[in-house]
Specification:
The structure is a homodimer of 223-residue chains.
Chain A (H helix, E strand, L loop, with lengths): L6 H28 L2 H7 L4 H4 L6 H23 L6 H18 L1 H8 L13 H4 L1 H10 L13 H14 L5 H22 L11 H15 L2
Helix pairs in contact in A: 1-2, 1-4, 1-6, 4-5, 4-6, 4-8, 5-6, 5-8, 5-10, 5-11, 9-10, 10-11
Chain A binds a DNA duplex (30 and 30 nucleotides) through helix 1, helix 2 and helix 3.
Chain lengths: 223, 223
DNA sequence: CTCTGTCAAGAGCAGTGCTCTCTATTTTGT
DNA sequence: ACAAAATAGAGAGCACTGCTCTTGACAGAG
């Protein structure tokens, strides 16, 4: 319909982006806790109330930044996968790229994988972007011969795993799917501990520990 | 020296405790983000400025709550270990108790294993209490015959692992120590994902997945 | 009994998110 | 082309925050 936007619409889209950019810049400096609408407005040379024409609340702004962050880390993971070559190498590359993004954008990472910011709410807009890293890992396993792994799986977990198998469209038993979830958990658990200082005193720096974990978890899922 | 305190000292200690209790109560309701010194004071029937005689800043109050939380979850983990019996059962009991505590005190948990609250700072007071859960797991492995596990360990990681071996006083090779760290990471990674809603859409509820993870990680470390 | 250190209280500062009203400007419909 | 409608930013203001400084009261030690 409106292939060409009106001047207002273009201005609005641009300003919306500028607000997000400035907010992201401040986020990197003072963290989510210290992000102030008024400071953002001030920096953009406008008055604070004008911001509310673009974002109905501070939390909505943060939610938008969350979605962006999920997409950014997901894209980083996807781009790290060459799509062909040794599956173990692809797997490792994705782990590495995910951690690298997190270390480069600690506050944005904390926004999505730290504690939920307000009184806890995860809008529906976030679930799809949030799955991108996991899907990048799954992609490595599809069209790849996996070592079959047996193991007792409790009934409810088995059902959950089988549902996942269908959704993801992979050929793997419930034990393997469960292990994949564990690997996913391990990936972000390790990044969390690294970024939030829990490895200080044990494996600090954690670089080698991280790549070691990546390799062991590749074996663990049967790659 | 001062076995008996003066009336003032006793009053001070009591009030300090009351402040922390009230703060903890509010924390459970509104989360760390919403914790307000003025509200705490109001509830205690005092004026906000009086609170500063007991805690020099809001962050110091939070830091005290953090230390308490580390000790509480650590104690829960320690108490769950019967000290004798099948190591696998002890291991599982600790995992379970840790998760239970986290689910019972989500905001306190978020305080210690979520994103660091202010401009990031982990005072030295927190490192000892923070290690208690991990040490409870280690305790299960001491005086227990572990399945020996070989595996290539990169030089720096090997050195870190060997230092840890000495500190912890366990008999295990670097591969096993590294795997123990991975299990520790997996434990809190799973609790994080569960509490912060990342398992919604895959393994929700995550109860069976969690106990499955606990068992698999027990095998993984050679238990 | 006086003197000194500790205490709660009050006022106040600078900052916050957010709402409401007013005015200027752009877009739209006739 | 012109009036009507929608949208923009500005300003004032509310209720709240953490935190500081000063003041007056009181307890404990000499």
């Amino acid at each position: 319909m409106t292939a060409t936007k009106t001047a207002r619409e273009r201005a609005r889209a641009e300003l919306t982006q500028e607000i997000k950019d400035e907010a992201r810049r401040q986020l990197a400096e003072v963290g989510a806790h210290g992000l102030s609408l008024r400071a953002v407005a001030r920096e953009l040379g406008m008055v604070s109330s004008a911001l509310y024409r673009y974002f109905p609340s501070r939390d909505r702004l943060l939610t938008d930044l969350i979605v962006d962050a999920y997409n950014a880390i997901g894209e980083a993971a996807e781009n790290a996968d060459p799509g062909k070559g040794a599956p173990r190498d692809r797997w490792l590359a994705i782990w590495q790229a995910t951690r690298d993004w997190a270390r480069a954008h600690p506050h944005e990472y904390a926004l999505i994988y730290g504690s939920p910011i307000p009184g806890y709410q995860a809008p529906q807009d976030t679930v799809a972007p949030a799955a991108r890293v996991a899907l990048a890992l799954v992609k490595v396993l599809t069209h790849t011969e996996l070592r079959a792994i047996d193991g007792e799986v409790a009934p409810e977990l088995r059902a959950q795993a089988e549902t996942l198998t269908k959704v993801l469209g992979i050929v793997a038993g419930p034990e393997t799917v469960t292990r994949l979830l564990m690997a996913w958990t391990q990936l972000f658990g390790a990044i969390n501990f690294d970024l939030f200082g829990q490895y200080v005193g044990s494996v600090d720096p954690a670089d080698e520990f991280f790549t070691h974990s990546a390799r062991r978890m590749a074996e663990f899922v049967g790659l």
